Amino acid sequence: MNTPEDSFDFTPEMTEIPEIFHNSLEKKPFERCLSCNKYLLEDGTPYIIEKAIRNYKEHQVKDVIFEYALCMECTENMRQVMSKESLQRMEHYFMSQIDPLERQLRLLNNETLNIDPWIDQCLIKGTPREELDEYQICCQCDGKNMVFTIMPYLVGGQAIEEMAELLSAKSRGEIDDFMDNNFGLPPELKKELGDFKYVLF
Ligand SMILES: [Zn+2]
After folding, report:
1. How far does the centroid of ligand 1 lie from the alpha carbon of residue 151, in Å?
2. Average pLDDT over residues 6-29
3. Which of 69, 122, 148, 162 is the most exposed place for a label (fewest CB within 10 A)?
4. Each residue of 91-106: pLDDT tens digit?
5. What ranges do the domains of the chain cover?
6. Which pLDDT score, from 0 to 100, does residue 1 have?
7. Interatomic CA distance for residues 201 and 185, integer angstroms
8. What percent of the chain shows pLDDT beyond 90?
């Protein structure tokens, strides 16, 4: 099996997929890849879950703007539609802001495998979750388990806008097309998405 963990010299820590990453309508783990419909809950099936959430602070209400699970193959396809330059700029932005390995070592508590500290603030800006108007959370899974890597993480609206600005017009166009072809999102939702759709893992 070829997962990103292979590059690290230790066994990945896993835990049951936490509720916050469940399908919010069905109240259970995502079963299929949004794009290719592959069944995901089999051991050895790597995939990503992503959710965009709007936080109505004054009413203490949260709304899921969109959510999905995407298998690794479809994730790769998605990355390949972006230009090399765009990907490099995003990666550089990311790596200049955080040290993934340091973060993993700091947050990973092997006894509790508690995900709260992983997603209680913006990965890039450090803004507490409750203070954000909108944010995105991502995690990596394998079958019925969530894997601790650089994920899970949370990225706030401001960081998402900054990252989206790093994309070339060409990459934006190609991601738009990819979203249209694979996700079939209704126009209202697309408008709602704004920059959110440009930033993926
Ligand atoms: Zn897929």
Report:
1. 19
2. 83
3. 162
4. 888 888 888 888 988 8
5. 4-194
6. 47
7. 20
8. 44
